[in-house]
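subagent[fold] <- orchestrator: predict structure for attached chain, return tokens only, no commentary.
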Amino acid sequence: MSDILLSLKGVKTYYGKIVALRGIDLDVHRGEIVTVIGANGAGKSTTMMTICGVTRAREGQIIYDGENITTLPTHQIVKKAIAQSPEGRRIFGRMTVLENLQMGAAVIDYAHFEEDLRMVYDLFPILEKRQSQRGGTLSGGEQQMLAIGRALMARPKLLMLDEPSLGLAPLVVKQIFEVVKELNEKQGLTVFLVEQNAYHALRLAHRGYVMINGQITMSGGGKELLSNPEVQAAYLEGGRH
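subagent[fold] -> orchestrator:
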């Protein structure tokens, strides 16, 4: 079995005639936290959507767990134990917290529902207190916790987080990143994270990639990129929340 869980090779994605991803290469090893950082519009979310099949790669290959998933439909990709917490959270606002978590478990037929629900409630105790509350009435931070919890209910091999810190208070961001670190360290969960908050992302990640205009311009260890003068100047000035 390969050590690489996810690999993008020369992936190009277009929106009409506009090139969104310009032939990107990146790898995510099993048990690793890997982040892609970059400014708004750099192509980070497009990368995630392309992996999930929401946006199609027109060139290149996406290999997941040894299988080429480049042309698979999204519903088949999800069944391969890839779970995403999307940008903007996108929880089901009219459903309760518990119903949202049930939706996450639906991918794997509720086989371990009670056990997984307990895990999510232990990670995010506020969700247990709010379990009968509608998702749309939660705070932004609670909605983000619910989005991650819903993804975890699908028992993913690969957890993909799209801008989890967006619009959240610094204390909530710190709490969410600590949970991600715990999931990785205690459960060996592989995490692929795209994030504008470079400081938090690079402190958390084993390795990182810098994306500018749909291209990977730099890569390295998280701490290595954190101390890189170019990265500091572009992404970390005033960004240490």
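orchestrator: received. Logging for downstream: The mean pLDDT is 93. The first helix runs from residue 44 to 52.
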